[in-house]
Amino acid sequence: QEPLSICTGAHTFDVQFHPREPLVAAATIEGAVELHAFDRDAGTAELRRALPCHGDSCRTARFLREASTSSTSRIATTAADLYAAVWDLETGAHVWKTRMTGKGNALLPLEAERFAVGDDEGGLRVFDTRQKKAVVRWTENADYISDLALGKDAKSLCATSGDGTLAVYDVRKAGTKGLIAMSDFQEDELLSLAIVRDGTKVVCGSQAGTLAIFSWGDFGDMKDRVKGHPLSVDALIKISEEGVLTGSSDGKVRVVSLYSKQLGSAVLGTVAEHGDYPVERLALSPCGGLFASASHNQPAVRLWTTEVAQKLLAGESTDDQAVAAAQEAADADSDDSDEPRGKKQKQPKKKRRKGAAGTEEQRKAAS
């Protein structure tokens, strides 16, 4: 399939679909959030507006849930400049802003006025745009927060971290009282997160490429794992209760079945790619018919149909796709390094780790 390609003004960390309009937001290393309108049928896209949101790398941007009494679109951002902010898309002005103690790295809208932010130090905060300071905060994690997801109960916040744990917090309670559960150290950084199977399973992407699967309510240790990614799984999105898309450091987007009666749990095949450049982020359109991928190269953002992925999840794979998936799984399980058998070759640490500013500065110089 041929994607709709969107070029951005700088290295892109995040991409998200607008909840109502054919519009995507791209968070860039220059601190700006670019808004691009697109027409999938015509194969065109154009830059509508670039918001100068931050003085340093904007790591993530999320459209806030819209209140029933308002049609105004707002977007929440956080960055390496220690700020979190909310912007009005119609006026381009910031309507709320606060300074944090750590560089922002992950953000998740909770309600129309509330959102959670995880930082490079392992701190987590829940902000309410009607108040200046955080209404809830936690400091239980020892390293950067990589991804966030909200449980089916709408009060349990799951967080993956560079410290190798999956933590679950009650968004209504601060401090240690708010920590519902924290997994054992998984001997690997956890980089991405999705909740599937009607809220009963939590799947986490890791630095080594394995998908670690936890059962809801039993977070002590993973209950299952899926191999088949040769490098780290940096991004995850759910496209069905039995399927996710994964974005990996090898530049490929894969579809993975999870506890499917027909297919079991396995990597089914590649549905998109960015060449040799890592896939930073994935996003699903409101209708579920498109997904966006963001990577280091230009065009940094690409929009793809989910049709191929859905066919694979339905068991309609071609012979070529089946062979390719089997080969990828075999390559991921093989050990061609000179290290002793059973010991994985160590991969470079992810850029969002504590002290990662130097990496971002190098990318700015190269852009």
Q: Which overall shape is indicated by the principal axes computed on the Cα atoms?
A: globular
Class per helix and strand makeup: mainly beta
End-to-end Cα distance: 29 Å
Number of E-type strands = 28
Q: Quick check: average pLDDT?
A: 88
Q: In terms of per-residue confidence, which ranges show pLDDT below 50 for 5 or more consecutive residues?
A: 332-358
- How many alpha or pi helices? 3
What does this structure look like?
It is a single chain. The protein is mainly beta. It has three helices and 28 strands. It has helices at residues 307-313, 319-333, 357-366, and strands spanning 4-6, 12-17, 23-28, 33-39, 44-51, 58-63, 74-79, 83-88, 94-99, 104-109, 114-119, 124-128, 136-138, 145-150, 156-161, 166-170, 179-182, 190-196, 201-206, 211-215, 224-226, 233-240, 243-248, 252-260, 264-273, 279-284, 290-295, 301-305. A hairpin with a 7-residue loop joins β12 (124-128) and β13. The chain is globular. The two termini are 29 Å apart. The model is unreliable at 332-358 (pLDDT under 50).
